[in-house]
Amino acid sequence: MSEFHAATALVGLQLLDEALARRRAIARRYRSELEDLPGVSFQEVNPDDDSTYKDFVILVDPTEFGVTRDVLATALARDGIDTRNYFDPPVHRQRAYRHVPHDNLEVTEDVARRVIALPMFTALADVDIDRVADVIASIHEHADSIDPSPGKRGPGPSRGARLGRSHAATRE
Description:
CATH class: Alpha Beta
Order of helices and strands: HEEHHHEH
Distance between the termini: 52 Å
Radius of gyration: 18 Å
CATH superfamily: Aspartate Aminotransferase, domain 1
Number of strands: 3
Number of helices: 5
Number of domains: 1
Strand content: 5-15%
Strand order of the largest sheet: 1-2-3
CATH topology: Aspartate Aminotransferase, domain 1
């Protein structure tokens, strides 16, 4: 390792605790904003463990929430909120592993269809977390009027880390 890389790593380590604390605060805020929303659940982290929250994912129950994960992702993208479906397709269906024998993975298949990663980065502002939560709540509230037909979904989620600034759902 060069001296430059070592110096960069030392500075990064000095900032690590602060960055992890911020990511945990973001996760707590998402949970508090979304926990009462029907059809939204979270990964449980053992109280004895400390998650780094590299990602913050929610599990969407389409029956309770009112729309599928894919419709939610499209609606969020239309409002400038970038999401990811990191675990779909699951590993056993990816080309590199299709040849590996596996048992029936019904739970894996179900979770892969319903999990969505919300914006998560250290500089994410509380106001942006609140806006993401407000837009998700609005999508649930108006689920009956959302047209889920594939031909009318428009573009999927973008590839950039962005949060649009529309006023579709804002706090008063």
